[in-house]
Write a structure and sequence with these properties.
Order of helices and strands: EEHEEEEEEEEEEEHEEEEEEEEEEEEEEE
Shape: elongated
CATH topology of the largest domain: Jelly Rolls
Largest sheet: 8 strands, antiparallel
Number of domains: 2
CATH architecture of the largest domain: Sandwich
Number of helices: 2
Helix content: under 10%
Structural class: mainly beta
CATH class of the largest domain: Mainly Beta
Distance between the termini: 39 Å
């Protein structure tokens, strides 16, 4: 009976292992710009303590190398950590490159069954660790230590860029499925890596075991992306922080015909901004103002109040994030601004109205899906 005495809470399992994300190898990734500072704090010029753990499954016939994770100094070569599948040598690699000295940890060309990793249909658990204290770099696949290299070198530059499921500089997008990415500011122990690999293996659930009594300590955990979201663009960091700034847009409710610059086809009237391609001339179809600072992360929300045809998009962000909006309702987009101007651009066939435009600076260590990697329930 309720309240009659002590009770024991049940152990909940598998609730966190419902889905993963599938990346197509062409332009899909996860924007984790918000983690640059925290990763730079542990991948340091005077000593690095770092681990990354994830589950992945390659698609078949990988023709060029594909990247799982990379952190780097964007202005100088030879100072980075790279986690990838190397297509030429047909193997996973974990490669810290500090001060131009690359410690290439190889995973071997075949899985435990003697088959190629490419298209084997098997989820694999990969872990890379770096420890200045132990002066070692180690690489694990499926609970087996594949290589340990002594001497980690010295990082010569500060980390200022990070990327997940792409190289961050020249493409190299991951081609396959990814699940449970965890990043630590410390070296995982052999025992902890075994727990991560074997967690609830009898149920087929090899995601991070953070629920039951036998789990890996969260000490030093910087990020944990389960990829469990059912919709939207946010990749939730389970240990993340989220803060919204003040409103940056002027006259976002279009109460008057002020605050906005309008190119052909746009007018402000009746409390909305309205576009009709019949009144437009050429490719300049933007309504815009200057509320942002280049390189900062922002949360954009706006409402499409009516839509006869066509689409609209935010062209203030990277060309790799080419999201169009084509339904009536409220829309949200998180983006890193490439300049000071917010541009909302209608397509050359559009007839539509928008309202309630809002832009706020957004501080977060969540990630953001780029170009909508598919949700898959084929999980480890």
């Amino acid at each position: 009976m309720l309240g009659s005495g002590a009770s024991t809470s049940p152990v909940v399992t598998n609730m966190h292992n419902q889905s993963a994300r599938s990346f197509d190898g062409s332009d899909q990734s996860v924007n984790i710009d918000g983690l640059v500072g925290e990763i730079a704090n542990v991948v340091e010029t005077d000593g690095t303590e770092f681990s990354i753990s994830l589950w992945c499954k390659l698609n078949a016939s990988i023709s060029s190398s594909v990247t799982l994770f990379k952190c780097r100094d964007s202005g100088a070569g030879g100072n980075q950590i790279l986690f990838l599948y190397h297509a030429t040598h047909n193997e996973y690699r974990f490669v810290p490159n500090f001060g131009g000295v690359a410690d290439i940890c190889n995973g071997g060309t075949t899985n435990a069954n003697g088959d190629s990793y490419e298209g084997d249909g098997i989820w694999h658990h990969l872990v890379g660790t770096i420890s200045a204290t132990d002066d070692t770099t180690e690489f694990w696949i499926d609970g087996v230590k594949k290589e340990s290299i002594t001497g980690i070198g010295t990082l010569a530059e500060t980390i200022n860029a990070v990327s997940l499921c792409w190289n961050g500089a020249d493409g190299s997008y991951f081609d396959g499925d990814v699940k449970d990415v965890a990043i630590y500011g410390r070296q995982l122990t052999d025992a902890e890596i075994a727990i991560l690999y074997n967690s609830a293996a009898s149920d087929g659930d090899k995601g991070l075991d953070l629920i039951s009594g036998s789990h890996v300590s969260n000490t030093g955990l910087i990020a944990h992306f389960r990829f469990e979201e059912k919709s939207g663009t946010v990749a939730i960091n389970e240990v993340g922080v989220r803060t919204e700034g003040s409103e940056e847009v002027t006259n976002g409710d279009f109460a008057s015909d002020t605050g906005w610059s309008k190119q052909d086809g746009w007018e402000i009237s009746g409390g909305t901004a309205n576009f009709d391609f019949n009144n437009a001339d050429g490719s300049n179809r933007n309504i815009y103002q200057n509320p942002t600072t280049s390189g900062r992360l922002y949360k954009l929300t706006f409402e499409i109040t009516s839509l006869t045809q066509g689409r609209i998009r935010n062209v203030s962000t990277s060309v790799s994030d080419d999201t169009f909006f084509d339904t009536v309702g409220v829309h949200t987009q998180y983006y890193t601004s490439t300049g000071t101007t917010l541009y909302l651009k209608a397509t050359d066939d559009a007839i539509l109205s928008i309202d309630n435009v809002s832009v706020k600076e957004y501080t977060t260590t969540d990630g953001f899906y780029v170009n909508a990697p598919a949700i898959t329930t084929n999980i480890p």
